[in-house]
Amino acid sequence: MSIEKHISLGEFSGFSLKRFLLLVRTELVKLFSFWLIQGGYVALLGIALIASYLVYHIEQAVKLASGSGYAFAIGLLLRGVDIGAPILFLMMCVIFSIEMNYGTLKNILTRSVTRIEMMLAKYFTAWIMIILAIGIFLAVGLGMGAHYYGLGDLTEDGYLLFPRSVMFKELAIALLFLMVPLVALSSLAMFISSFSSTMGGAMIFGLIAYLFFDLLGIIPNNLGIKIGEHFLPYSAFGFPTQRFVPLYILDDLPAGIPIQSWWVWDIQKMVIICGIYFIIFFSLSLVVVKKRDFTL
Description:
Elements: H1 17-31, H2 35-61, H3 69-102, H4 105-109, H5 115-148, E1 154-156, E2 159-162, H6 164-194, H7 199-216, E3 224-227, E4 230-233, H8 244-251, H9 265-291
Antiparallel strand pairs: 1-2, 3-4
């Protein structure tokens, strides 16, 4: 009897958290033993360090200043996520294709692990990779911001604008929303990786897909559809560019503009569109892995 006939959603009744966490741990150890993943994170760290150095010295050269360590950190986070997102995406594209490239998938499937359980572990691994990448930019941004300008209460001309606690709270909210488009990107990466037989193929197809959706984001914002009292531009369907939305909102805070509510239309449409993309690509990736013959 084929492997596929043994796999069904009903097998989740025997789901083991310990086994799942072991799968995730194995995935992380395996991935970080590859030069591609190691090099990717070194590149992300290098981008953050070089960007912080250049931004500060360019500001000094033109006699400008970020005004606070928070503004510097947010600006660096914005630049880092802008440049680093394609690199992170390509790193996630090889999570599954590595198994095919080195023939290790057959060994995994001979154990008491269902295909769906295996894929969920790979998704969880991808999300850890995203958190680590954001952590690199955040650590460098806050560290260099503290070094250059300090991270105390935000003041202007001796007046208190926002306490330090408010700044960190708003920054945490922004990073949680930033996870939404990046998690959607992970589903696209996993879908592409699931039907690719080589790491090179996964990266090539991944780059093409990323560029396609990224180009949708440059459609003029005056083109779109009306939904009730809100306007939905077609550019919003270029969901990789939605990663800028929470950071643009956060960027107003160091200028003394309070964030009255995070649940504004820009955030709402980001969550809706990225949620739809995630459901589509997540479902397709599970179908591909469930139906594909990995014995070839």
